[in-house]
């Protein structure tokens, strides 16, 4: 570490020569009070909305235009009695529903729920005394049909829970252990939203003090350290507030909140770190506070804009995927990136120009970030002296991890991966113990009969019976429910069919005879992944083969079908998104750095970092190596369909940060007349501490999200932590400089033959050297 005087002797103050015309840096500094006032007004308008983010973000994913979405709409329109939207209440600690007391509990429960205007009808042992409704210890459940009435279905869960709590209290004297718990897609969505929001808040609370401490260590001054923390917190608040305002126009998913928290803390702090570091560097070079602020905007602003553009490109590509959850992540990412870039290039320099030397208030030691480091100079010289050895030793071990990417699977995790303490997950486990969890995971098949046959015609009835029998014979299926299986009739008997209660008949067939609904309940062993296989097998059947009736049409829906459509849509766009991101990023780097080799190298290293992150996910989450350290009991055997896409886009964008930070400083040094080796050494000396400090903060941020119970966010946090660790250390500070050394003068091709050096010239990162 060198002191301030020594640093100034190496780099004497530069006389600034301002070019005529508009200058962003001058505009920011000269109108600093207007800029600060503008941000205060924006914060006053937007930030209050952030407090409502939990109420406004959706949990349920949807795939508009998919087969599962069509079936859901069809059931709601044509089978209103078939529980198009429903929840399940599980009763434990009471008496068997076959007993008088157990029946009394169900009657009281039905009466309490029927008073709610959102409840359409119920189905339980009271309606069908079936053994499937009874567990080994007297547990039972009731299916409750819901009418959302313009609300999101999961918003109804609090109303339902209030109604069941009153039933619990009424029977408490006779059954102290009576518990009524809600589960099903709606209740699970509601609880996951709450768990996700709590995890995001908890991660922020844990990370901010750690981040502040890391920044104090890096900067050696309290004031300089607190500015990036403030920038990160404001970035999150403004982005979440903006997202809430956007929900007035289209729905956004809960994953947005976690992504905004991750990126707001990571990028917001990183960009502010770069600006504050540049400002302090200029102060040490003898500039005034105003000139130092202008220099920070000029030098760091372009770097931040190029980095932000790279991240924005990756997130913009996610908008291609027609899945609300993925598009919400894209919206959240774009919001927080835009806010972080604007804060770092306008508000922060305005504040710094007012603070001046007070940015070093609370100094605990000599300057660190903002001064060149002799330690990193020595490392730079070593890399330049042994580039091949550094390249091989650094990249070989990572190659073995990256190779594991070939085994990455996007299947839903097997086993019990739901958060343990959620009411809905505990109720779901009770249903699993009763071997009836298929009621939550039912596959719903809508069959349309050809014009010459209806469901109540001999040919149509026979076809419905054949289809039901075929499905019931599948070992993955626990039970099949259709009008043919419920009645047991071998031929349509109009008198018997007319005697069936209208609600029951209307839940399985339409009055016009054109449509019938078949429900398939998977076995416990089949699970979520097996239910998805049932959906795929049904959809792969030749037209008319299920009913063996030419001209019949079959469409498959239900929660397993939604999962299949989600995976198909997400992974189906993966290759095109990778291609778009790589090509557009390559073009932006070519324009930003005006160097073909540097652009190609940056993209290649980014792809390598992504592969290492995927490989680590395979080893830990699919294979189970060290998974207990992350709070999970066993290997998951798979990830989630969204993980490959999200990780690729986030890692690819974030990895560009450190590439831009390093190469921009090397390009500046080269433009000032240094040799290739000296420019690499200078770039590492100036940015090595910055990159390692920024990476430490990023890793702390992402690692905090691995501590919660939301498994998808846990995997995402782990993958991003690994990617940043690898990218900011081995990739950018070892492999990248070694490749630059080997590239020599070709690094700057297509450059011209002159270096633009003149008194007062201070090139920005985009100003690349013209090679002699």
Structure characterization notes:
- Residues 1-21 and 752-772 have low confidence and may be disordered.
- This protein has 26 helices and 8 strands.
- The protein is elongated, with a radius of gyration of 31 Å.
- The protein has a 4-stranded antiparallel sheet.
- The chain has helices at residues 4-10, 24-30, 32-50, 53-56, 67-78, 100-114, 157-170, 185-219, 222-246, 255-284, 289-317, 324-355, 374-385, 387-403, 423-433, 458-472, 483-487, 494-499, 502-506, 527-540, 559-572, 574-593, 596-622, 642-671, 676-704, 711-743; strands spanning 86-92, 119-123, 140-146, 179-183, 443-448, 477-481, 515-522, 553-558.
- α11 (289-317) runs antiparallel to α22 and α24 (642-671) packs parallel to α26 (711-743).
- With 772 residues, it is α+β, with helices and mostly antiparallel strands.
- Helix content is 60%, strand content 6%.
- The protein starts with a helix and ends in a 29-residue tail after the last helix.
